[in-house]
Amino acid sequence: MLAQIQHKSDILNAVLTGTFSLDEAKRTFLEILDAVALQKSKGILIDGRTLVGKPEVIERFFYGQFTAEMVISYEDRGVSAGTPFAYVLKEPVLDPKRFGETVAVNRCMNMKAFENPEEALKWLSE
Fold first, then answer.
1. Mean pLDDT for each consecutive 10-residue tract of the chain (126 residues)?
2. Which of 24, 31, 54, 79 has a C-alpha 20 to 30 A away from that of 5?
3. Which CATH architecture has domain 2-118?
4. Domain residue spans in the chain?
C-alpha cells in the first residue's frame, strides 16, 4: 500500500493505493499520523477508494484497535483523540456494517467511514 499525503488548509488528505494488508495498513497509518503531527492538521481525509482486497473481520478489528491506540500514543505530539479521521472507501474494503469503525470509536477515536468524499468533507467541517 502506498500513501500520497498532502496538506490543504487544516485538512490532511491521504490517498491510499494498492492491495489491503493489515501490516501495510498499519504502516501507512503511522505515516499519516506523522504527517498530522508535523502539519498540526485539524482533520484527516483518508481516501482508499482504489484499494483492493477484502479484509477479514479480525483484520478490521485489529486495524480499528491499532488506529485508536496510535492516536492516543501521539497525544504528546499534538494529535488528540478528538481529531477527526474520515475514511472514504468502497466495498469490499469498506465494511457495510462498519465494524472497524465501531472498534475504533469504542476506543475513543473520532472516526467515520464514508462512501464518497463529499460526505466525508462535510463531516470534517462540522
1. 93 97 98 96 97 97 98 94 96 96 97 97 94
2. 54
3. 2-Layer Sandwich (3.30)
4. 2-118
